[in-house]
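Chapter summary example: a protein plus adenosine-5'-triphosphate.
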Amino acid sequence: MAEIRVLAEDPSTARVFRRFWPYLRPHRAIFAAALLANVASSAAVVGIAPAIGLGVDAVTDGDERRLWWAVALMAGLVLARMVLLRSSEVLLSAAGERTIRGLRDLVVDRLGRAPLRFIEAHRTGDLLRRSTGEISDLTLFLRDQLPNLLGFGLTVALTTALLLVYSLLLALLLLALFMPVAILVVAWFTRGAPRAFGRQAAADATMTATFTETLNAHEALVAPGRPQEWVRRFRVDNDELLRAADRTIAVQSRLELFGMIEGLATAALLLLSVWLVRAGQVSVGTVVVFVVATRNLFESMLTLSGLAGQAQLARTGLARLTDLLDALAPAGRAPAEPPAGTELLAGTELPARGDLVADGLSFGYAEGADVLRDVSVTFPSGDRAGLVGVTGSGKTTLAKLLTGLYEPDVGTVRYGGVDLRVADPDQVRARIVLIPQQVHIITGTLAENLALAPGEPDRAAMERAVELLGLGDWTARLGGLDADVGMRGSRLSAGERQIVGLLRAGLVDPPVLLLDEATADLDPDAARRLETAVERLRPGRTLVVIAHRPTTIERLPRIVRVESGRLN
Ligand SMILES: Nc1ncnc2c1ncn2[C@@H]1O[C@H](COP(=O)(O)OP(=O)(O)OP(=O)(O)O)[C@@H](O)[C@H]1O
């Protein structure tokens, strides 16, 4: 378990925007321009109330010229607000879309390079939710909600400043009476929000994960006539999601208290204003400005409170996405404690040929439960050996360690004297190739499947590999390189899948080949083809076969036996 960091189901949202800033930094100029347009647009909105006040005072004073000025000012402010707000929205959308595109590329790139143990240790649906769903939520937030959040936030700040300038007495009354209540409401929301939204996001991911897994197990569930099991499994997670969503709604509704505060504030303000106008302390225009601005203030706060829920949702998603990106950041993947005496420079060149040596390997999938213990074995260059042992003894695990797919918890795997953990990963994949029991096949043609081999092989290289392995008649029968292999390779048998694996290995031309023989009973035809292909691929290479079939074991000159995680 040394090599990976397991993702938190509900990671902390503390300082998440700051942690996320490096991913936004490349587009900071557009974000800054959008922010400026937003500030100017909010200032224009806030300026409308004084313009109305100016007009009202002009009417009460009978000053027609001032009235026209006030009307022109109002029209100008409304127009400016429209243009500036639209510019801010367009700029934020542009910056947001660019950020998101970069993020999608980054997530796929990091997942593509992630250690195999990392992928195995997480549910596919959870990774799927983080790398697609959370990013889509973030897109929505950046494009639609962030402009409003900024706009209304600034409107609240500028309106408060305006009220203070117009009448200190009225403004202080408003602040003293209602600010503490408003702060209490926000604090109440903030206390419950991270947990409620975090729980909802985790429940959403669990539901996606269960759905994905159940979909993959469709055959196993439907074959014995138990499709209702699918519904049962899904319903448990769906119910939890409903409970989590109910809780989120309850927390969000705390913010609706702002509506009530607004009513009380306006009533109190009007009462005091009448008294102040009578006492000659303020003009009618000032009162109008106050009423309009207060309404503006509370409406903005109400909208802000709705947006705060969305922002919390985005924050939770962002925390889960940042957790994924951080866990897969290149620096976090350095070997925990490089063994003494090894070349420590990452990306060390591997020699073209060399012995493959496992030295004192121990490895476990879970803490304290080693699957392999103190395993040492050498496969000299050009060796031909079989790994045998009962099912579950650790053969496949050893093969994955020997190919660098897993990092050992203790001990080293060296090729040509270089520790695989510090070797250039591309070179490791080019030197040592494992053909697994279940070769992964993608939906598409045979050629598209072969193109997955490292090194971007072209058509001519594929035809050469088919020729080299003596598989011309097999590909011809299938329908050539452009033959459709069906949904996730449904047209291919277990043996034929391994033939595709061998063709991929032929394209890489590695000096070391490990073959995890398919345990499924192969039809004699597929078995013969596989054996011929392996023999043709073998000359000059080290070949290690995890052998299950007696005929294979008989033909191998050397046998290494794995028993309960040890060699003997
Ligand atoms: N990804 C995994 N996560 C957790 N445990 C695993 C994982 N893969 C294998 N194991 C466990 O490790 C042990 C060794 O498994 P491994 O697949 O290496 O055995 P094997 O000898 O290759 O078996 P087989 O001949 O059936 O392929 C088993 O107990 C298995 O349950």
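Key point: DSSP finds 18 helices and ten strands in the chain.
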